[in-house]
Amino acid sequence: MNIYIKSLFYFGIFSILHFGYELTHWAFFTPFCGINESVFQHLKMAFWAYLLASLIEYFVVRKKFNKRTFWYPRLLSTIIVPFLVMLVWYLVPAFLGRVESLALELPWAIFTSYFTGVMGGIIEKNIEENTVTPSFKFVILILFIISAFLYIWFTYKPPWIDLFINPEIL
Asked: Could you write out the DSSP letters of every residue in 45-85?
């Protein structure tokens, strides 16, 4: 699938996950959707959104790729994309401080979400073109399992770290 199209799917899914729980209050969505505006919740949404975009990609192009090399680069991008979101998002606060303007925050959020999807796609395409060793596959699987576990676990039992604080209550 084209990187830019996949990034649109990622952005759309991220948007759904951002507002899904707030609009429905369905408990089923809690592990996947943002339940507040904390940094952690946004990382969680990016993780699940990229994984779901990769699942869509799998079903759309499944006859056009090597099944043995498809998932590992995408799982690695799924692990990395949340951190790319954090790195790109915090460029504006680094230069401008706290952003109070929705006119700036909304376009920056849209750009950040889409652009990090593009970066994830570039990473996975480059990894896909190279040999992925069994030990690298093992590391990716372990990191993916740990990530999925922590995104779900910390949704219900957030630790005391400021990464989990909802800025709306400050």
From this structure: HHHHHHHHHHHHHHHHHGGGS-HHHHHHHHHHHHHHHHHHH
Q: Identify the pLDDT of residue 143.
A: 96
Evaluated on CA atoms 140, 39, 55, 28, the torsion sign reads positive
Residue 16 to residues 33, 71, 143, 167: CA-CA distances in angstroms?
Answer: 8, 23, 25, 21
- Do residues 130 and 16 make contact, with C-beta atoms less than 8 angstroms apart? no
What b-and-e string marks burial along 38-58, b requiring 16 or more CB atoms within 10 Å of the CB? bbbbbbbbbbbbbbbbbebbe
Rounded Cα distance, 47 and 144, in Å: 10
Range of lowest pLDDT (23-27, 68-72, 119-123): 68-72
Distances (CA, A) of 112 to 7, 78, 153: 11, 16, 26
Amino acid sitting at position 140: I
Whole-angstrom Cα distance, residue 90 to residue 96? Answer: 10
- Angle, to 10 degrees, between the axis of helix 134-156 and the axis of helix 39-61? 130
Of 76 and 62, more confident: 76
pLDDT of res. 31: 94
